[in-house]
Specification:
Oligomer: single chain
CATH topology of the largest domain: Rossmann fold
CATH superfamily of the largest domain: P-loop containing nucleotide triphosphate hydrolases
CATH architecture of the largest domain: 3-Layer(aba) Sandwich
Shape: extended
Number of domains: 4
Strand order of the largest sheet: 2-1-3-4-5
Number of helices: 19
């Protein structure tokens, strides 16, 4: 089963029965504990948690019914397998239904069936505990990068993710570009029983129609011109895992028909192949535009739409959940500090005020880009107004400020050539980074090699020695 052995508590008033059962279950790799009735079972559960409960129904002092009722009142307890005598099957079924028991077995117990139920119940317990841990992170710690927030809108998203993740249901994720649709898909995968399997993402809008079917379903060698070797498709790559079909509305109609068949039959045939391959894949689709228009125009098959839209999760744009900005900024700064080796602690109040008054058309992706630039410029401490782009926010009051007020500005005299303006920008950036060429190249969006070549070019001209001194400094 992997990991530490699962713990099983056996509750039965017949000593020979519970001890014999404990001995057998121990040989299957479980750690066993016994109790003579419900009261003793509650005491042992309070002392040390267990993964599976195996309990008789009829016992003195506290029977199995009351034991399960108490556990349910306390929050559920471990999954319970109920042992019942012949003739009490209806009672046992009612117990499973009303008190949430995992399953029931009739006496005499079939050992093979018990072992199978124990393994399944223990697996369910581990998945539930892992899901609970990830859910806490998802809701409170912001550890899933950009997918974070405590606003009511995001809490509704988190609730849907928690509910749908353990199932096999197809999910349609909608939302504007940059809201984090792929992160929703990854969260569903991480909280699901498939989390140990692969997660494969395909962008349907970024792929030529001629390559779409090969990408999804694969092809055999010689299936078409240029098919020099066999290629495994994304459905096969995602076997026992999750496949994200991003921008599903841009998939060609002919490919949609083949996709629908795969979804219905769980079988895929490579292009040029003769045999069908069984695949077990959970499909999540996403789009950044309303699909109703694609349905009206016939660009999206209605039957495929309904097949994919079993559960719909809509991600709100950032402008509709600005109360999440402090938590988002905190989570993104932590991630960017790890990426760039910087030590930026927070954004100044004036920066947060600017952020809160902006509409963020690019959503969380735009926020991350603005913060990334600011983190690189600041390096450590606090992000201030001068670390933001000079024209941020677009259309805001900051555009009317004199350039001289911006310490990060580069002043170029009217009539200067493009080459002179470029030179001024490069040298000013080197001054700003204290001649750290690696960081300067990163800020300028050029390679370190290109920066070196520019500095050599400036050094070869007799127009001052600033560039020479800059070029003489070492990179760090």
């Amino acid at each position: 089963m992997g990991g530490s052995p699962a713990r099983v508590l056996i509750v039965d008033d017949e000593e020979n029965q519970r001890n014999g059962l404990a001995a057998i279950i121990s040989t299957w790799g479980f750690v066993t504990e016994t109790a003579s009735d419900g009261l003793e079972a509650l005491e042992k559960l309070a002392a040390a948690p267990v993964d599976v409960l195996v309990t008789d129904l009829m016992m003195p002092r506290m029977d199995g019914f009351e034991l399960l009722r108490r556990l349910r009142a306390q929050g559920g307890g471990p999954p319970a397998i109920v042992i019942t005598a012949f003739g009490s099957v209806e009672t046992a079924v009612a117990t499973v239904h009303d008190l949430g028991a995992f399953w029931f077995l009739e006496k005499p117990i079939q050992l093979q069936a018990l072992r199978l139920l124990l393994e399944r119940a223990a697996s369910q317990r581990r998945l539930a505990q892992e899901a609970e841990r990830l859910q806490r992170q998802l809701s409170y710690q912001g550890v899933l990068g950009e997918l974070t927030g405590r606003s009511p809108a995001m809490q509704r998203v988190f609730s849907l993710i928690r509910q749908v993740a353990p199932t096999r249901a197809a999910v349609l994720v909608t939302g504007e570009s940059g809201t984090g649709k792929e992160l929703v898909a990854r969260a569903i995968h991480a909280l699901s029983p498939r989390r140990e399997g692969p997660f494969v993402a395909v962008n349907c809008a970024a792929m030529p129609e001629t390559l779409m079917e090969s990408e999804l379903f694969g092809h055999e060698k010689g299936a078409f011109t240029g098919a020099f070797e066999r290629r495994v498709g994304c459905f096969e790559l995602a076997h026992n895992g999750t496949l994200l079909l991003d921008e599903i509305g841009d998939m060609p109609v002919a490919t949609q028909a083949k996709l629908l068949r795969v979804l219905e039959d769980s079988r895929v045939r490579r292009l040029g192949g003769r045999n069908e391959i069984v695949v077990d894949v959970r499909v999540i689709a996403s789009t950044n535009r309303p699909l109703e228009e694609a349905l009206r125009k016939g660009a999206l098959r209605e039957d495929l739409y309904f097949r994919l839209n079993v559960i719909h999760i809509h991600l709100p744009p950032l402008r509709e959940r600005l109360e999440d900005l402090p938590l988002l900024v905190e989570a993104l700064l932590a991630d960017l500090n790890r990426k760039h080796g910087t030590r930026v602690a927070e954004a100044a109040p004036e920066v947060m005020e600017i952020f809160s008054s902006y509409g963020w058309p690019g959503n969380v992706r735009e926020l991350r880009n603005v913060l990334e630039r600011a983190v690189i410029l600041a390096g450590e401490g606090v992000i201030r107004r001068e670390h933001l782009p000079w024209n941020f926010p677009p259309g805001g009051r900051e555009l009317s400020k004199p350039v001289v007020e911006d310490p990060g500005a580069v002043r170029v005299p009217l009539g200067a050539t493009l080459e002179e303006a470029e030179k001024a920008l490069i040298l000013r950036t080197l001054e700003y980074t204290r001649n750290n060429k690696t960081r300067a190249a990163e800020i300028l969006g050029i390679s370190l090699k290109t920066l070196h070549n520019k500095l050599k070019e400036y050094a070869s001209h007799p127009s001052g020695n600033r560039e020479g001194s800059a070029g003489a400094q070492h990179e760090s």
